[in-house]
Amino acid sequence: MTAEIHRLKGAAPSLDPIMRLVASDMNAVNAVILDRMQSQIPLIPELAGHLISGGGKRLRPMITLAAARLLDYPGTRQHKLAAAVEFIHTATLLHDDVVDGSDMRRGKRTANIIWGNPASVLVGDFLFSRAFELMVEDGSLKVLKILSNASAVIAEGEVDQLTAQRQVSTSEDKYLAIIGAKTAALFAAAARIAAVIAEREGEVEDALDAYGRNLGIAFQLVDDAIDYVSDEATMGKGVGDDFRDGKVTLPVILAYARGSAEERAFWHDAMMGRRISDDDLSHATALLAKHNGIADTLEHARHYGQRAIDALGIFPAGVAKAALVEAAEFAVSRAY
Amino acid sequence: MTAEIHRLKGAAPSLDPIMRLVASDMNAVNAVILDRMQSQIPLIPELAGHLISGGGKRLRPMITLAAARLLDYPGTRQHKLAAAVEFIHTATLLHDDVVDGSDMRRGKRTANIIWGNPASVLVGDFLFSRAFELMVEDGSLKVLKILSNASAVIAEGEVDQLTAQRQVSTSEDKYLAIIGAKTAALFAAAARIAAVIAEREGEVEDALDAYGRNLGIAFQLVDDAIDYVSDEATMGKGVGDDFRDGKVTLPVILAYARGSAEERAFWHDAMMGRRISDDDLSHATALLAKHNGIADTLEHARHYGQRAIDALGIFPAGVAKAALVEAAEFAVSRAY
């Protein structure tokens, strides 16, 4: 709990320190993003801007920027690369919302609802291509390798999740593999590339990768928990969305593994979309409580959050390290 | 008409010479494709293989390979890069079929019909990422720049086409800009990268780009014409598909521009999807005949095919040049 010395005792961890740390860098990243999402085809910046300026926290580029600060990297290469990371993330969000048929994200209607699936697919492709153009301009084959590999892994994770859809017997290990690919791979890459541009390869690169990867898993697990406890006002999407979509997340996996035959039959029917009324959701929530599905998911998240923090052990204390540590504490404290 | 000396007088131009020229290289490319479309997630090679082994002509990688032969390039880098080009093409086909809601391609049911839109979107993303991984392995930033730029241009062209959908007043220039982006950019890049690996930049690179770009436009225009005259047995899709989908292609643009007010009203209604019966298609075909819509589209295609051939003027005569010339002749003679 290194970061506690940097804030008032008992104050909740927040993203404020990391946001302050990278504020000027983030302005530069936002300028790159705004510039590079332009196109002679007006629909492209219109649709991309809806999502990009739509209240996202820019977590992944923030990690690239903070990691560059941690390493005292003196240059500006992180700006284009952080923008590339955000473009890859935005492209996957656009495609995810098509894949899931989502209608709300970050409290707004999704692009696929406003402009249709075809436009979302194609603008996602455009942003993905632009991400690679930015990396090519930067000129590091190593960065290109890290991010093209992460992109392939993300797509594999998404397909894996699609295959596992509604399969209530998905194992915990399988689920961790899926979120390790679809969510954590980009966090890991976002952190790792900072080591490459700072020419601190080897141990430093691996440590940053581990920080990003564990943080990404922690974030995803907390998201999965929040889906059963939050409301639309705080999350920008409704409680129980995952339940109604038949998404087999860790809370469900734990409750299913620990449940009676009768409970398992309920979960099976629910994930198949046959029991998704409000009453069913209440029943699901009761089962999750009975088996500690939410509490243990958050406990797992804390485990990964702590691993993220411990991965930073090799770095000297300082403002950047404290901000990264507090970001991990924030990740796992959001739902409390 | 350089190539005529290589075939019997009067024989129809064919792809046989270029296929013979690159046969051994294409085996190497196919091995890369098969190897790199693998994944631990079984759905990925299953879905990708359906399209990749589904009877496509591998035109774009063929052009990379033939251009490398034209330049007497002695190495093997073209194999991975040609596979990358085919992966980008396959990814765009998967996404196109989702965007268009297509149900048939190359005489088979489309992947989106068999496995659903979500899987097609995600496997497309996977192949696109794999394409970049292959390019990164090759290690040329210049090749990466050419192909990432082409990918962004393709996506822009697709979005532009989406915006122009059902707009019967689309101008000929606008249409040429769309197909220049969505189709010809990848042909141009496929040819251009051969110059990069053969270290023949400048004039040679520009000549190959021009060959590919003009050939791509010619191919697309002939495809547009064939859609109104062919049958499912030869094309793998039904006659009039573009008509029923409201796709405003050059034959329609010409007939609309040359038509009476009454005819224009018909085209408008047809492209809006309100007159797409078999009788309507017969009427459309009659209007195309009256205004030379098909004949002049093919004439335009021949113009671009000739420009492709002329772009090769700087290269010495030989088997490779003759094969590339005959490929362009084939492109514009398919519909006769």
UniProtKB/TrEMBL annotation, chains A, B:
Primary enzyme class: transferase
Pfam annotation, one family: polyprenyl_synt
Keyword Transferase: yes
Keywords: Magnesium, Metal-binding, Transferase
Catalyzed chemical reaction(s): 5 isopentenyl diphosphate + (2E,6E)-farnesyl diphosphate = all-trans-octaprenyl diphosphate + 5 diphosphate
GO molecular function: all-trans-octaprenyl-diphosphate synthase activity; metal ion binding
CDD domains the UniProt entry points to: Trans_IPPS_HT (cd00685)
Cofactor(s), names only, from the UniProt record: Mg(2+)
InterPro entries: Isoprenoid_synthase_dom_sf, Polyprenyl_synt, Polyprenyl_synt_CS
EC number: 2.5.1.90
Domain of life: Bacteria
GO annotation, biological process: isoprenoid biosynthetic process
Role played: Supplies octaprenyl diphosphate, the precursor for the side chain of the isoprenoid quinones ubiquinone and menaquinone.
Family that this chain belongs to: Belongs to the FPP/GGPP synthase family.
Name listed for the protein in its UniProt record: Octaprenyl diphosphate synthase
Higher taxonomy: Bacteria, Pseudomonadati, Pseudomonadota, Alphaproteobacteria, Sphingomonadales
